[in-house]
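My main concern about presentation is that the manuscript never shows what a single data entry looks like. An entry of this sort, consisting of the sequence and the corresponding backbone structure tokens, reads as follows:
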Amino acid sequence: MNEEPCIICGRDAICSSVTGQADTCEYRCESCGNYFFQDEQNEDDYEKLDGEQRERIANYIKAFNEATGKFAEFGDIEELWKKIEDFNRERKEE
């Protein structure tokens, strides 16, 4: 386990490779929550996010962790936006 900047907020997070899953890292960020980030080549897309987008993702991660007890999983930014929309829609329907 290493300390590395969180993909979302940039603060220190605990990061480790996930055994058995190529190109997947586990992040534990006190600010954003816990998540699996897949495929490091997607990092460039996250560097371009503005503050509002970063906050939206961090809120999703925290809500997902709380609602499911699991780590959020993402990589491709376009797929993440769809996951966030689906998750929020499901929560509104409950």
In short: DSSP finds three helices and five strands in the chain. The chain has one domain: 2-93. The longest strand covers residues 12-17.
